[in-house]
Amino acid sequence: MKIVKKLRFTNLLVLVICICFFSCSSDDSNEEDPGSSENPTTDGNPPPVIDYSTLTPPTPPEGMKWQAVPELTDEFDGTFDEDKWFKPLWNYGVPVQMRAENSGVADGNLWIQATLDDGAERWFETSRVQSKTQIKYPMYTESRIKTAHISAYNTFWLNNGNISNRDEIDVIENNSNPSCDCQPDFPWQMNSQYFHVVNDDTRRAKGNFDNRKLSDDNPSQGVPWNEDYHTVGVWWKDATNIQFFLDGEPAGSVVSAREFTRDLNIIWDLWTFDADWLGGLAKKENLSDDSINTMKVDWIHTYILVEE
């Protein structure tokens, strides 16, 4: 401070200008990779703006890298790829009726539509799309999805087995328009979870992340599932550890009480049921409204971990 006080006014002005020049200049070689989930402040400068759409996949462990799995990756820019996907039509409970014609690929999306067969016991016509290829940990998969705005579960999940013996990871079970007046958080809640069932003995844990908890600078914060596309993913790390992701950010995790042992298929479907845990039964009048009755999947990207 004694040295600064002895400087002449003109010299002090030059010094201030130099400091301002160098502090305001940026060095591109030191810019952070936009794919990093970290956001440090360097040399007193504000942190860079993160493009959350590029945060795919998460940073791999040291010495490992992500390798795409073509059989489980699709941009849905053409037609329905029967080499990758098929439509298993087993039903949930009444009133669901699975139909092949209620799903397909068009306009750059995989779509699943709920329609009405009024008068039938199974009046909720819908569909399911499943991968032909199975996959096991360590892996990461994510899908960009806009949900149907009806009281139904729009799902993205992994499964293998049957009701009594299965390994299952539910990335999302989204219902943006619950009819029961009992699920006020559903328009923003992921409903992520795992099931591990052995001879009807079920182990299960939920990770109900709410998208209103996303970072303040994330443009998807608080946007209901039906109003825009959201990117949802899961990092299946090992036999027991499962980390979910939403719009480029970690979104809760679960730890299985038993080890997962099965290779799993990837699945999307759309279904309803008259139960409060689902958000209530779909309203029939909504199934005739093509502006809200269709779940859309922009793409799916899937990776496995390999050594560098």
Précis, in short:
The protein has 308 residues and is mainly beta.
Would you write up a description of this structure?
The N and C termini lie far apart (52 Å). With 308 residues, the protein is mainly beta. The strands form three sheets. Strands 1, 4, 5, 9, 14, 15, 16 and 18 form an eight-stranded antiparallel sheet that branches. The longest helix has 16 residues, at 9-24. It has helices spanning 2-6, 9-24, and strands spanning 64-68, 85-86, 96-98, 103-106, 109-113, 115-116, 124-126, 128-131, 139-146, 153-161, 166-174, 192-198, 201-207, 230-236, 241-246, 249-255, 265-271, 294-307. It has one domain (62-307): Jelly Rolls (Sandwich). Helix content is 7%, strand content 35%.
